[in-house]
Amino acid sequence: MLLAPKIDGRVLRVLKDAGDSAFPGEVLLELDPTDAKLAIGQAQPALQAELRKLRLDALPESDAAFLAHLPAVDSVAQARANLELAEKDFARIEEEMKRGVGSVQTLDTARTKAKVAKVGVDLAETEARVTLAHARRLQSALDDAEDRLRETQLRAPVPDDWPAWSAVLGAAANPIRYSVAARMVSKGAT
Q: What 3-state class would DSSP assign to 17?
């Protein structure tokens, strides 16, 4: 069976040579992990910043969970408070008008402020959804970078029955071993 890394990179270390034996899951060679580590280093803080904007510790499991959390987002909570204040002012001024105490201009201004506040709520909710979408993209980039980091280590194949054997006999007593027939790369090769 021919083994090769799933990703490209410079060979950092070759741990097994022709004729060596290897246990399932044992590292055979390592590629330079620098690019993957840099990608992780960029994605993690960016993701955390987006989550902080949303007042979340982790991405929500579903859109419904996010909708339930939406009122806790600072910008949405502020916009809803402004809407509530504008609606109360409008209702108060409207009541004054019914009693003949207010002016039409004041009523129109209050009505417009309530409409603007409603648009502010819609805008804040939309911005929160956009931030969530961006956070999900960053999570995907982080997952990809973590996968690439794992792929920098080429390991001997692990048969399906390996965990059962290891649980019963222990890893050292497991009869499954591989032998390296040939090595086709060396340290520093791409």
A: coil
pLDDT digits (tens, 9 = 90+) for 63-81: 999 999 999 999 999 999 9
CA-angle at 144, arms to 166 and 12, nearest 5°: 70
Which conformational region is residue 48 in: left (phi greater than 0), alpha (psi within -120 to 50 degrees), or beta? alpha
β-strands 178-179, 153-155 pairing? unpaired
Angle at alpha carbon of residue 89, lines to 121 and 99, rounded to 5°: 145
pLDDT at 43: 95
pLDDT in tens, 81-120: 999 999 999 999 999 999 988 889 999 999 999 999 999 9
Count how many Cα atoms sit within 13 Å of the Cα of residue 7 in the half-sphere of its side chain.
21
Phi/psi region, residue 173 (left: phi>0; alpha: psi -120 to 50; beta: rest), is alpha
Contact 119, 79 (CB under 8 A): no
Which amino acid is located at 147 in the chain?
Answer: D
Chain Cα centroid distance, residue 188: 33
pTM: 0.76
